[in-house]
Structures are given as C-alpha cells and as structure tokens.
Design goal:
The complex is a heterodimer of chains A (114) and B (113). By secondary structure, chain A is mainly beta. Chain A contains no helices and eleven strands. Chain A is globular. The chains are: A mainly beta (114), B mainly beta (113).
C-alpha cells in the first residue's frame, strides 16, 4: 500500500536554528498538508499546498514557516528560527484529487527544540 | 468555528469486550469524517472514512456511524484485543474549506489481556 514517508523521524535542534522537515507524498496525490501535534494536545492544521502554491494556512503558520515542493516528489516544511514552543510532532499528509478520498498521513517527525 | 470533541478521553476494558467511542462536532456542514488510530509516538493510521451522505462504514471488527444532523459519530470495536490499545482520533473535513481536517483530542484505549 502506498505510504507517505517523512524524514527524519526525530530531530533535535537548538533554539534559533533553522530546520527542514522532509516528506515524500504518495506519487499520484495532488494535495499536500502539514499538521502538527504538541505533546498532549490536538493535531492542528498548519498549511495545505496544491498546484505548487499554498492554498490555505492557519494562524500558526506565520512568517517563520515556509513550504516547498522543490523537485516534484519531495515536500518540505522549513522553520527559519526555531522556538521552544515549536517542539512538536509534525505530520505530512497527502490526498488524491477527489475530495471524497481520505488523507494518508506519514509517521511524523518529532522536533525537539532545546 | 468547528469544534470536535471526543468522549471518553480514556477507556480501559478487558479483552473481548465490545466498545463504543464517541465523537461530536459543532457544525453539521461537514464533507466527511475520518477515524484514525495513533500508537504512542507514531503517525496516524486511517481506519474508516465516512462521507457526509453515508450513515456507516465497516472494516473488519470496526464499524463507524455518522449522524450528521446531530453532529455525532461513533466508532464501534467488536471483540476488543490487546493490540487495539492505542489512541483513536476523529477528524472532520469542513464543507467550506479546501481540505483542512479538524481533529478531536482522541480517546486513549487500553485493552487488558
């Protein structure tokens, strides 16, 4: 069964450093998403991406965040200057064109900012 | 603003018991509803997807129902097993947004052997 792959599985970074989280969505999917889950809290929407541009973003997704699909297969989330409160599990998801289909999530990247 | 609530927050049952997890949402104008399983420190595994026009979906020992007008969904697990121990998340997709899923906080299930 096709999978969404995320790397790394765990990243530790110092406050103020830039991090890039990587995702390989399912190859024929057209819509891509980043969600995050702070420990003990709900999974929260960050951003959706379609046709090489952001289609929707939440209030969390401020100027410190950016997304890119650099080569037609990878989908990345960059955090420019990490803060302690950015520590969370970050999930990538993708779905097919038909809105009737559900989302496929990756296994997540646990980001720890120290 | 859509809010999703899951009750109970935690549930512990003996192996073999049938159980029901509840999900409620405040705005009935949803496109679909998806149930996920999350193991500790792991990703989200999709279990069942119910379209707004459907009343229920079944997969093996799992059955999910949807009552859109009352803003409720239930996940029924038959003959529970220790391997079912995980957190179960409910998420709705609003009809109005482009694809944003709104999650509940989950029900943490523990099935004792």
């Amino acid at each position: 069964e096709p999978e969404v792959t995320q790397t790394p599985s765990h990243q530790v970074t110092q406050m103020g450093q830039e991090v890039i989280l990587r995702c390989v969505p399912i190859s024929n999917h057209l819509y891509f998403y980043w969600y995050r889950q702070i420990l003990g809290q709900k999974v929260e929407f960050l951003v959706s991406f379609y046709n090489n541009e952001i289609s929707e973003k939440s209030e969390i997704f401020d100027d410190q965040f950016s997304v890119e699909r650099p080569d037609g297969s990878n989908f990345t989330l960059k955090i420019r200057s990490t803060k302690l409160e950015d520590s969370a599990m970050y999930f990538c998801a993708s779905r097919d064109r038909d809105r009737a289909f559900g989302y496929t999530f990756g296994s997540g990247t646990r980001l720890t900012v120290v | 603003k859509q809010e999703v609530t899951q009750i109970p927050a935690a549930l512990s049952v003996p192996e073999g018991e049938n159980l029901v997890l509840n999900c409620s949402f405040t705005d009935s104008a949803i496109y679909n509803l998806q149930w996920f399983r999350q193991d500790p420190g792991k990703g989200l595994t999709s279990l069942l997807l119910i379209q707004s026009s459907q009343r229920e979906q079944t997969s093996g020992r799992l059955n999910a129902s949807l009552d859109k007008s009352s803003g409720r969904s239930t996940l029924y697990i038959a003959a529970s097993q220790p391997g079912d121990s995980a957190t179960y998340l409910c998420a709705v997709k609003d009809g109005g947004s482009q694809g944003n899923l709104i999650f509940g906080k989950g029900t943490k299930l523990s099935v004792k052997p």
